[in-house]
Specification:
The chain has helices at about 25-30, 45-65, 65-85, 100-110, 115-125, 135-145, 145-160; strands at about 35-40, 90-95, 125-130. By secondary structure, the protein is mostly helical.
């Protein structure tokens, strides 16, 4: 996912402060978009153990005030972090209305699918990026990196039912 810039959010005129004299509610409502949330998942979670070991050794080197070892371990940690970050994938989900969720779930329940199978399909269907994200892919993530898969489901749930909180991260 590329880092968005102000220009990538559309025409500034479309998002100008509301002027009570010229405000057009119908136009504003037409421009409403569903809430989206994103989570970052990592393909190379196996390297977190290596990072844990380096962190522990780095703490020991700091206690010993061994600057040469601190520098070497810091460099090693940065390399591991870089590899983990390069394996990252931003998964974007789009919120659905209560009616849409209900209709989607009922259609699969009528086919005899379990609640868990329906949820897998729903979460996958709510993923808008990356394109081609399927229920089978989501099921694989659940089997291999369940906490990361559940973060995707939590993002979908939040997009469906929570009012967005907009603030600059600190």
């Amino acid at each position: 996912m590329t880092t968005p810039t102000p220009a990538s959010y559309g025409d500034a005129k479309e998002t100008a402060p509301i002027d009570p004299q010229s405000f057009d509610l119908a136009t504003w409502i037409e421009g409403v978009n569903p809430v989206r949330h994103a989570v970052t998942i990592y393909q190379r979670g196996d390297l977190v153990a290596d990072l844990d070991v380096v962190k522990a050794r780095l703490n020991n080197a700091k206690l010993a005030k061994n600057s040469k070892e601190i520098a070497a371990l810091t460099k090693q940690a940065r390399g591991i972090v870089e590899i983990i970050e390069q394996s990252s994938l931003d998964v974007v989900v789009e919120g659905w209305s209560e009616d849409r969720v209900k209709a989607f779930r009922e259609s699969f329940k009528e086919q005899g699918l379990s609640d868990e199978e329906v949820t897998v399909r729903q979460v996958a269907a709510q993923v808008v990026s990356p394109e081609g994200f399927t229920a089978e892919f989501y099921q694989t993530l659940l089997g291999v990196v369940r906490p990361q898969a559940e973060a995707i489901a939590a993002a979908a749930f939040a997009a469906n039912v929570r009012v967005p909180v907009v603030s600059v991260p600190s």
